[in-house]
Amino acid sequence: MTPLVFTLITFAASIVAGFLGSLLGIGGGIIVVPVLTLLLHIDIRYAIGASIVSVIATSSGAAAAYVREHMTNLRVAMLLEIGTTTGALTGAFVAGKIHSRWLYVIFGVMMGYSAIMMFRKYHDPNAPVPPDRLADRLRLHGSFYDEAEHRRIDYRVTHTYLGLALMYLAGLVSGLLGIGSGALKVPAMDLAMRMPIKTSTATSNFMIGVTAAASAGVYFARGDIDPFIAAPVAAGVLLGATGGSRLLARMQSHVIRGLFVVVLLWISVEMLWKGLK
């Protein structure tokens, strides 16, 4: 394969990765890593390094637009980053002490369960939200204008402590498996904290960029980020993320939820296959 063909394939796949990553708040690594390793036969270390770059590019391309449109809840993001960062540090510390097979199986089961719960709409969006003193004290509640529904949506955040615990778990899995934690963050905010799916997606986009930026230096120091691979990935993901961020506000919430369920099921099957194989 010539360098030109390699670059074009990587760039095209990265556009798709950035589009879906910004739309669903999961980063682009879920598409970038399989394409680089399975299709282009790139070493997994460089694929993960490029994945980190893709997550930063996804967040950079989408976060600004979501913050400007008030879909990102910055207070929730900063609070939950405490749990995610702590979990990631724990995962990095215990990595290698647990057999990776069981990690993949556990993660796959968790993703499958999250997909089923989101598909069933675990909670009624019109049901009263339980009061939460911590959320009231920290003023975590918010609102945004939904262009698809042509109305302003006000929401209240609940189960803050549960959200922090789930974010710790998301960071733990991310540190153990070397993957992005957006696939766990969005269901945690949507199902446990009762945040709208669009706000959950936008807030996850902001959070994954902060987490990835903190770890990118480690990957670069180890030599796991190859500019020849990372450059087309970053360019393609940034382009795709910009398009995805413009589409999110105009899409119906149930469509976004359906896309997220499909992606979660795909992740679940892939992780279970890796673990059981």
Would you write up a description of this structure?
- 74% of the residues lie in helices and 4% in strands.
- It has one domain.
- It is globular, with a radius of gyration of 18 Å.
- With 277 residues, the chain is mainly alpha-helical.
- The model has no long low-confidence stretch (mean pLDDT 81).
- It starts with a helix and ends with a helix.
- A two-stranded antiparallel ribbon has the order 1-2.
Summarize the topology.
Blueprint lengths: L2 H22 L4 H11 L4 H25 L5 H21 L5 H20 L13 H6 L3 E5 L4 E5 L4 H18 L4 H11 L4 H25 L5 H22 L4 H24 L1
Antiparallel strand pairs: 1-2
Helix pairs in contact: 1-2, 1-3, 1-10, 2-3, 3-9, 3-10, 4-7, 4-9, 5-8, 5-11, 7-8, 8-9
User: Helices and strands: which structural class?
Assistant: mainly alpha
Helical content class: over 70%
Q: What spatial order of strands do you see in the largest sheet?
A: 1-2
Choose one word for the global shape. Answer: globular
Largest sheet descriptor: 2 strands, antiparallel
Report Rg: 18 Å
Number of extended strands: 2
Domains counted in the coordinates: how many?
A: 1
> How large is the share of residues in beta strands?
under 5%
- Helix-strand topology string: HHHHHHEEHHHHH
Tally of helical segments = 11
Distance between the termini: 29 Å
Average pLDDT across residues? 81
Low-confidence stretches: none
